[in-house]
Amino acid sequence: MTISHSLVLPNPRFPALLSTLVLISALVLVSACARRASLFAEATPDGGSANIAVLQGDVLVINGQAVHLADAVAPQPSPDARCAAEALAARQAALRLKALAIGVKIASVTPTGLHDDSNRPYAHVLLDGEGPAHDLIIDGLAVAPGDKPFDWCGPISANFPRAAHIADLSFSGT
Known about the structure:
This protein has four helices and six strands, in the order H-E-E-E-E-H-E-E-H-H. By secondary structure, the protein is an alpha+beta fold. It has a single domain (40-172), classed as CATH 2.40.50.90. It has a six-stranded mixed β-sheet, with helices on one face. Strand 5 (107-115) and strand 6 (121-127) form a beta hairpin. The radius of gyration is 26 Å and the shape is elongated. Residues 36-46 have low confidence and may be disordered.
């Protein structure tokens, strides 16, 4: 009976594969620890406006980062709206927020440390020193956050501030 032993030599490409794997792992770790862009949009050097987009009545994209207004709760747009009135109110809130964001030179964002269901940070936002959340609430297009969610689909209460204004917007389409 003959027993043969074979010597298994490592693959000559093994060191190259191992070093590539180590390099990729290091790059992933470094990029994960990299500093994120600031949530502060300043005017462009040529005096232009800050980079701001509106996703919905209480969500802005500032300097590439989506932020949820911490000081106001706006109605949900379709398909998340629970009724047509809420969808219409959401459209009005988004249009008003867009109007407030036009021509803004400086957007200041102070995150609260909390995140919404879409993992967007809640933040206190100032556009050229003014709070858009305050304007949305005054205009009747949002409510202040509270313990109990506002029922955008319920009958408009005469006790709710600016209820008549919300009803007028429903019919004016502006």
